[in-house]
Design goal:
Blueprint: E1 4-5, H1 8-12, H2 16-24, E2 26-31, H3 38-51, E3 56-58, H4 66-74, E4 76-77, E5 91-96, E6 102-110, H5 112-124, E7 129-134, H6 136-146, E8 151-154, H7 163-181
Parallel strand pairs: 1-4, 2-7, 2-8, 6-7
Antiparallel strand pairs: 3-5, 5-6
Helix pairs in contact: 3-7, 4-5
Amino acid sequence: MTKISINTKAVNFLNNHQKMKIGKMNIISLVGISNTGKSDTLIHVINSLVSNSSLWEQLPAIQSPIWDTINNDLGLTKNDPNIKGDTKDMVSIFENKKTHKRVGIVTTGDWTDIVSVGIQYLISKNVDIAVIASHPATFNHFILELNPLAIEIRTHFISQNRNKYRDLMQNKNLNLVLSCLI
């Protein structure tokens, strides 16, 4: 397997099969600038699905550091060795016990190269629904180009001294994501 960089090559060299899979995949994206709670909300989604084991089965998870595992599985190398992601980031895949639909959740995101690698990984795991985090530019110029029917759930910056509103926004977004998975 030829190793490629996860910068623009990972985006530009999606093969036709991957582009077709992305076009047919249901994508739910929490969209907002950095540090607006997207990853934290997705971690809450993962915890909610784990706690609902009567409906959701968690498939074997990736252990940290997630990017090393993903890059190795996909045969990718990093141009920037400093791209490690946050240590709290995770990837989880669940199967609905009733519908047998697979849901893949990637908590890290924002930029196109990272989102592209996360989606490529979810494609390799045959998920039906991808739940991701992305920056507005990534959503508008990458996700929507490949899948015009992707669902966008917006986040926005709420200062740290307004934790009550930040928590309310995260709970609202958590409930929106969960309602899309049923």
